[in-house]
Specification:
The chain is an alpha/beta fold. It has two domains: 288 residues, Aldehyde Dehydrogenase, Chain A, domain 1 (3-Layer(aba) Sandwich); 189 residues, Aldehyde Dehydrogenase, Chain A, domain 2, CATH 3.40.309.10. 39% of the residues lie in helices and 20% in strands. The strands form six sheets. Strands 15-16-17-14-13-19-20 form a seven-stranded mixed beta sheet, sandwiched between helices. Strands 10-9-8-11-12-22 form a six-stranded mixed beta sheet, with helices on both faces. Strands 1-5-4 form a three-stranded mixed beta sheet, covered by helices on one side. The relative contact order is 0.14. The chain binds ligand TXE. The site of ligand TXE has 27 residues, from helix 9 and helix 10.
Amino acid sequence: MIQLTNRLQQFLAKKNHHHFIDGSYTNAESEQQITVINPATEAAIGKVALGTKESVNQAVAAAKKAFNYNSDWRKMSPDDRGKILYRLAEKITEHAESLAQLVTLENGKLIKDARSSDAGGAAKTFRYYAGWATKIEGETLDISQPQKGGRQNFAFTRREPVGVVAAIVPWNFPISIAAWKIAPALAAGCTVVLKPSEETPLSALLLAELAMEAGMPPGVFNVITGDGRTTGASLTTHPDVKKITFTGSTYTGKIIGKAAMDNITDISLELGGKSPAIVFNDADDLAFAAQGVAAGIFRNQGQVCVAGSRVYIQKKVFDKVLTDISHAAQKMKISHGFDETAQLGPLVSKGHLQKVRGYIHTGMEEGATLVSGGVVNPKDKGFYLAPTIFSAPDNDQQIITEEIFGPVLVAVPFEDMEDALRLANDSHLGLAATVWTKDISKAMSMINRLEAGVIYVNSPVRSDPGLPLGGYKQSGIGRELGKVGVYSYTTLKSVNIVY
Ligand code: TXE
């Protein structure tokens, strides 16, 4: 068992955690509380405040004040803003073990993933966007307006920070997804109110402490804890919020999208996926492809927006590839996240485990063939599920049309490229896809015709701060990460000087 760091022990000793607003913890004694559960042990690890409308107002007011034209933040040079983001990246690296352990405690995920994807991923994202603070550009434009008396035009655009940003994030990568939003928003000069998921709110509070230690002016980055219905809804309907950035379910994304339109608030949505992995007969190394497909669905217990949860395998190699994937699945060691040798941890919550199990039941009822796994919890305590694989003849089952968001894979055979495209594009979602082939022409045809925002060839999908992420169809609106990510927190002002 891993020894918790001193910093984390001190943090957890507080037991009751409050919102982080205007540079310090607030006094939210009067609010209801949410208990945060460790999914591996089912024990409580702390309580956070369930933010009321008043607390949300306070957080937005702090962010608005920090965005005021004469504030320290607004007057700060891009270079100094970048330095603060860079210092925060260093703080995250310095306290990476505390952050990773906290993420494992509240989410259940494997500590190695919490170290690399969450703490490591967040540091990388802040480092990447630190450099963007000094690279936000407008354009000069050669316009054709006639002017009197031989006067001329000097037209240009400038990018300005959009204002107070509401960032609403899910529980699957609590601080790295938060970083995907906070880092570009701050690089652009915005201020932020972050609402973490009610399942994993603690790591966001620790991140806010580190931001202050990195020299972030008060009010620039605030954290409000709470649920979706009260806290999240108060934040997304607040008239002083100028941009909403959300990652979560398509269902909630639609509610937030409608709320945004009431105030004509800018919005970006990164919603769910049901991403296809397509394995051709001529994949370079079929065993490697099978391993990649298994990694693409079972990483983080399948709770990954870009998880390849449908695998289409060309008929000639269907049995071989499916057998390899199921061998890989059956060999996975299921254990709590602090077991350094574990390969699959618990799911995030009891409710989520029930939801995923419900889908497995539905798959069996609808006649899909269960190849491995199933609904049985392999442990006495904790929210565990064995990696589960189904095979089905076509796309007409619920387990292949809806996002399950757990360690559940459905395999379907295909004839040829046209058939693979028909099956892969037959979805209301379009976040990601992977293609496994050594034929570059085939890979390019697939890239051109797949309806997905992110495509990887011969690798499971991974994230990188420099590579934009977002979805086609009901997988979302807008893109985050990369240059487009930082520009999405700016608004364009067009200017013409007649001289
Ligand atoms: O998501 P929600 P949940 C999918 C996945 C999962 C399902 C449900 O299929 O099984 O969503 O998960 C906040 N106004 N994804 O319930 O509801 C909420 O408090 C404002 C895919 O966790 O979308 C949390 O902070 N905010 C996804 C955040 O929204 C509201 C990752 C996400 O919650 C709100 C997670 C409201 N009305 C789940 N209602 C991905 N794309 O990676 C809820 N929230």
